[in-house]
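Appendix C reproduces, verbatim, an entry submitted by the partner laboratory led by Prof. M.T., so that reviewers can inspect both the input and the predicted structure.
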Amino acid sequence: MVNPVHLKTLLEVTRLGSFAAAASTLGYTASAVSQQMSALERDTGVVLFQRSARSVVPTEAAVVMTRHAAKVLTDIEALMAAASKTQDSANQELRLGIFPSLATYVLPRILKNPAWKNLGIDLKVSVAEPGQTIQGLRTGGELDLAVVFQVGQTGFAWPNTINRQWIGDDDFRVVLPAGWGFRSDAKVAADHLSEMPWIMHHPGTSDAMVIERLFAGCNLHPRVVAHSDDFHASLEMAAAGLGAALVPELALRNKPAGVVVLDVPEIRLARNVFALLINDRKTARVQLFVDLLAETLAGMRTAVN
């Protein structure tokens, strides 16, 4: 019998391309991930990965199994939620901490989704930046679930009692004033944008340091004309011609007229979005809500021009 836990690990290994990366996302050690995949190979009788000293490459069998595993896991979670709802018809309260971009663009879509109405969840929402919502989990009692983001390898620490699940990425894009003469979605080398006026994050934050290192590695030396951690303000200033900016795709759902979005191959950065859940408050209903959140975010990851 195949272990569903091993199927979930398989999804992460094939998505991320390594045991170590999957282990980091799932909260395991790389050795534990390797052992789970070996057990799955024994249970199924097929080779799932071509292993070398530095990499693991999924076989065709792994790719096929991954496609089916996603549906199997969703069906299992739906089954558990239905059983839970039958046993206890009362709605479950879920105290959710969520960052502003997700609250603005993703959460409303979930609440309008017919699948949401069948979950049996009474939602209480707190909109705040990740640092605040994580504190709500730590202090015990303010929140049950926090949806946060990390940029690069920087971020926040949380106790071992917290379960972390990756739910998607929100890619950063370079935006410029339309009056600068660039065509929308044009492919431009990073060094062509050097010495131009830029709207940057306030210095000293973890996000700002990641972006500064990325720009330096691209030989991009911006002439800073403004500091802003408000993406909507950055977009409006860019539209008015003040400078270029680096903003996530979710913020571009409300892109003003007067800006163009460029493709800069050297600048590849994303906000990695995670759901943080107190282990003893995780139920099948809550897991289905997290899955619905991930599906909705994935559905919105389209090019914004």
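The longest strand covers residues 162-177. Additional entries are available on request from the coordinating office.
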